[in-house]
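@channel sequence for tomorrow's demo:
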Amino acid sequence: MKLDKPPLLEQAFKHYESGEIPEAKTICQQIINQDPSNAQAMHLLALLGMQTGDIEQATLYLKQAVALAPDDPTLHTHLGNVYSANNELQLAEKSYQQAIQLKPDFAIAYNNLGRIYHRQQQWQQALENYSKAVNAQPDYIDAHHNLGLLFLQQGKAKEAKIQFNNVIKLHPYAVQAHYQLANLAMQNNQIVEAEKHYLQILSIDKEHVDAINNLGAIALKKQQPQQAIDYFTQALALDNHHIGARNNIAATFLQGERYENAITHYEELLAQIPEDVEANYNIAVAYMTLGELDKAISHYQAALKGDPNHADALTNLGIIYSKLKKYDDAKHVFQAALNLKPEDQAIAYMLSAITGDKDFTVSPKQYVHDLFDNYAINYDKHLMQTLHYYMPAHLDKILTEMSPEGKPGWHILELGCGSGLCGEVINGYANHLTGIELSEKMIAIAKEKNIYDEIICGDIIETLQASKQVYDLIVAADVFVYFGDLQALFSLCKQHLAPQGLFIFSVEILEKDGFKLQATARFAHAKTYIENLAQESGFTVNSCEKIQGRIQDNEPLYVNVFALENR
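structure tokens (generated this afternoon):
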């Protein structure tokens, strides 16, 4: 409404526009005291009420203003605004419709009426009114933006994109339009397009936290984790309580196996949202990997409190309970996990290790893969310094005795080569050293040591079945604990050994006959089982020595180390 303002009212409006609310309000009260029928003063008092959040005052003054000037469409629109702010949607709708009756091309009233329908999910009515607003005023930025949001909610991404682009054509620095276009591009994995819009946002508003956070997500997609961390850190510097950035930086550290850093950020996140299921689960994974089992248990339990059907939390909790020999607790959570994932052989295997209810003759491949992938980062240090792993030294002793004339230059195959702890010793006796390993993370560590001429990533039996190579020596140190029935392996090793070739391996000791899956989820084998199988497979037992393989649960763990010769 174009107001022809007298001097005093003009002064009040100047105060209002300058943000001097008390001064504007005082002058309006003076005007109304002098002229109680002054609709313009009533209107301004209503605007002041809306600005200060006093909806009741704004409603009162607008009703009076409308009563004084019933043909003013702007007053009806503003009355609709206060009704809308007070969630009185039917009254707001009537006020906007009244404004439109008075002014059929009133774009603002159409747009605001569209919002009322939008809030009530009356999509068609919202679309009609936003469209009328745009038709009445083609450069109406807010109406284009609202149309874009409406199309987004309806899943019409193409139409939404058109509207947000319309906004940018009208106003190139419209941050929210750039943000919506960036998000649409991200959803379609259009990383370059998304990055362009997020960077444009930062050129307008360098402290736009959500854009900074999402640029971090893009850096992760581009496999630039350090740049991602830099973005997430920048976002948190601007808003230390930004949930998305905090979760993202924690997850990035976790994925990068920087567990202490991940824990720091998950603790910050959980201080804000203690019941967050995934944050509790992820921090538990970090603590579990670092060997802080009590803390891991606490957070797995917190995750399960929020989601009792979190199968991974149940499984990992079972692994910890098994490690702590709390077998009743382990059985309970493994069974709960298996009920949720009845086809999961790894869970069934770990449960069977405790109960013996199901016969397994080999560890499931996924179980072994995940076990060593998760173990990789601490494997060498834990095995050598904490468990005092003796096999590399004993292999060196055996091989020295079998090759008294110095380096024999053998063609050697190491089964389950892991991170290369034994390979570092075996390499000294090899002309060519090949390893087979299931865990990609263990292979990555082994490759850094530059001791293998070749490492094959795959299952041992499948790899041997597909290979035609012949070796002078096959070594399997601490590998057959994941195989119960060794008949197929012995047969394959026989096929791949040259005449008089050597087959050296270790097994955990079983005092009874045959083999057995232990509560540790590792197989043990009787000496007689190995001797009989060697005889059947065409091997001669050159030696069998009982040695301390490592420390387990603060006790020596003894293994039998066999040296077989291909007859």
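heads up for whoever presents: The CA atoms of residues 550 and 557 lie 5 Å apart.
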